[in-house]
Amino acid sequence: MDDKVVYTLCERVDAKNAAQVQQEMDELSGDGSCDFVIDFKDNKYISSAGLRAVLFIQKKMKKGGGSETLVNVSNAVKEIFDVTGYTKFLVIE
Q: Does the N terminus or the C terminus of the chain have fewer Cβ atoms within 10 A?
């Protein structure tokens, strides 16, 4: 892997801004060969649109030989990942 890239999510990721968040992460992750870290320290809420953005990057990283790690995920947001089954294939530290 080339580098470690950290992206800090905003407080809310929902239908209003998920496309912008996905675009920012897509640009930062380059060709998908990096260690991409999504920092949830400021995030309080993520909708299904936000979950899709996280999944999009996870697939890109897998295809490019990189990795995706989620850090500083609150219990409330982690519960959303649990309910949706995302914790089965995402790395959450």
A: C
